[in-house]
Amino acid sequence: MRLKKIKFRWIYLLALIGLGLLAAVPQIPWLANPYYLDIAIKIGIFTMVTVGLCLLTGYTGQISLGQAAFYGVGGYTSAILSKTYGFPPWGAMAIAAVGTGIFAYLIGLPVLRLKGNYLAMATLALGIIMYIVFREAAGFTGGPDGIAAVPKLAIGGFVFNTAEKYYYLVWIFCVAILLISQNIVNSRTGRAMRAIRDNEAAAESVGINVLQLKAKIFALSAVYASLAGSLLVHYWSYVGPQPFSFMSSIRVLVMAVVGGLASVWGSIFGTGVVEVLTDRLRGFGDYNIIAFGLMLMIVIIFMPRGVWVHAREWLAQLRRKLSKRAEV
Hints:
Radius of gyration: 20 Å
Number of helices: 15
Shape: globular
Oligomer: single chain
């Protein structure tokens, strides 16, 4: 994939914002609270999964209901390699990402020949199959009990063993993935992705290898999910099957829709809204799926391009109106 160069001023601006946020964390009262810091960490982790789905569905037009499968493969692989076989956690995380990407690419070549509802059902089946494997392959995955005492990530003697340290690590990964994704979207590859989304036959007629590109984006979204899963596992020092169920795929889909399927930066907004809502509805158990369904239905009907995209357009219109009034 040929990537378009990001303008230096944008890198400089984002770097300043990032450093400011990192420096401000201990001073922000609600982030100093471990409860809210934990939510902020999970928002960063889920944003990584969501932006991968945005690239796949919003920009390439390929429906996926199985992102939790790759999320789980990354988490379990990293946990098994580091805990059971003694691999360094960073090495286990890298192997998990590469292995998940290869797995997704090989699965994607036949699956992405399907379209519409058939593709959705195929990815849904993949997610369900992998969840069953996580639960039943007790010899490797620990079964329903999972794997405990997964080693923490560390750089030399600096161990990411507190929520505050892990916040920094997660958001460095998250911002890097967002920048890479935005760069892809603005590149020649991004234009080819949008061409496939709009009309596959027309894309093929201008020389785009549709199946290969779809499989590559599918693999890239899986790598993002794998990294997120590994970060989650090393944060909790535990992995079990529950976070990688079908409901996790639905949550990621709702996050992408709320933020805007074709908006890379909107994935942060969508993830934040859904994660906070999930936390507030935790006491309702399985009934929280009703809230997700209602949110998805309302957004699709009234704001089909996502809340973030519509809010940004509304602010742009408001600025234009205010500027016109100022001129008068």
